[in-house]
User: Fold this.
Amino acid sequence: MAMTKSQRRTAYAAMRYFLLTIWLLIVAFPIFWMVSTSFKPDREWFAWPPVYISENATLQNYLAVWADVEGHSVDEQTGEIKTYAQSLQRPWVALGNSALISFIATTLSVLFGSVLAYGVSRYQILSEGRMFQLLMLRMVPPIVLVAPISIWYSALGLLDTVTGLVILYFLTTLPYAVWMSKSFIDEVPREMEQAAEILGASRWRTIWEVVLPLVRSGLVATFLFILILTWSEYLLALLLSKAQVVTLPVELSKYQGSTEGRVYGRQAALSVGITLPLIVVGLIIRKHLARGFSFGMVRR
Amino acid sequence: MTADTTMNAEPAPRRGNSREATRAQGVKRFKWTVLTPLMALMIFILLPAFLLQGYFSFFSFSIFDAGDDPSFLSYFRASTWVGLDLWADAFSDDKFGYAIIRSLLFSTGVTTGCFLLGFGLALLMYRPFRGQGVYYIFFILPMLTVPIVIAYTGEMILYQNGPLNDIIGMVTGTRSEVQFLYNQQAALTTIGLLEIWNWTPFSFIIMMAGLAALPKEPQEAAQILGASRWRIFWEVQLPLLRPVILLALILRFLESMAEFPKTWGLLQGGPGSATETIPVYIFINAWQFFDLSYGAVLSYLVLFMMVAIVMSAIWLLRREKKSLDEMYQASPEES
Assistant:
């Protein structure tokens, strides 16, 4: 029994919605679980059967983590959270560190990267081969150099400092910054710059006042894209910071090692705080995400 | 004549040649102004680290050797020459060998999984339909979730009395008690599935962009010639997508070779050594056993291996990009 064309089309559409909805559930469930757990009172964290949506929803976890109602202290030697006695506001300190480090590193990376990208786009100051070699900074796993870097940093006094992490975040995100902003700069017609040049503007002035403003929205996208990378970085932050400069992902991992046992509700409340800014940022630039990774391979 | 990079307000009546020369000089100066800071960072931060790593791979040193004096110079005083001993150790270290194999298997599996899922979803979604935007927003969420958060949320979901076993139980009608994590056979696969969950959006967005950018004419031509949809996909779309596919595969493979937060955050290489991938194994040696020198040797070997892999990846990408550039130069309507 042959289907007519319109029947086939309906069947295809139905199948598409079915498959996409299955994946949607798979994608949404862990995020739902994180949010749901963050509102559960402690007796429901490990309950069997698991509690999906708590009927006794509480803000206790958020208050404990972010407002530090209970308070907790930290073992100075191991950095572990030991008791819930003192008020230290650690998550806020970590949030401050994370924000500071990722904003500085991202700003530097995008500013420097876009000027470099301009040079490559207009004057080929790096050959295409060199542009691809730049990718090495990102593609070689950081674990292979982080041990000697920590020694060298301790000699330079950069260990456990904001500057130390900023330098490495700058270097490891630079390839993406250059490639992504270049994809925007390539699209700007050169007539404007030539006009500025004829009017007597210096090269730097042309860059600051003509070229970069023209690609403003592209640079914002690049900025947010790199912010995502630096905000969620874990390995370097874990190994190059001890006690002074703890970032949010590292702070979260201290809850896991907590001697109090598993504190799922608290972890979830902190996780929501870490993830929320990224989701907002990511959704703002969702149309540009592909560019960040495409290295000139996707033409439009 | 000194380099006069800034154009004067009044146009200087110069001969063409000397203007060209000034311009070239200006570009050169601009080039070095931009590149110097970058090179300075590489020379003062990365190069010394690279050399230190070399030193400690021949001079054995563990943090314990430094004793009470944790200063930089004490590291050198406390280290002893061992020549190639540590290198020989690394080559006969079975655990290291297994870590490499594990990482390669892990990355291959993850890359394949992410690609098939991402490409499949992109094929279902790239033509406009009602609800496309909503699905798209949901589908990119995992990529925007911090990896270490995924690790810990994963644990909440996967532990024996967690919701996943509950859901499996509801579907099958029996009590399910699968150990997803603390089980030698399953652990690495579980981490792999979390990694696939995390990064399928990456393959998905790249393939969406690739499909959206495909030129329409060849497909229309094939349609007019009476080719089936299936044939159009295999013989028209797929070849055109080759550069994008390659990009999605290569980047994903390299990133999962470096995966650390989930593997470490969840299982610290365990149970047994079931999840000792390359990064975890180096971490355990250098930071848990404090054996900096052995860690340095392992790091060097992995560095060489990864540089070789990245170089061939770059070579492949460049070749694709070149053919792409030629193709677009040939078609005049491209601006």
Remarks:
- DSSP finds 14 helices and no strands in chain A.
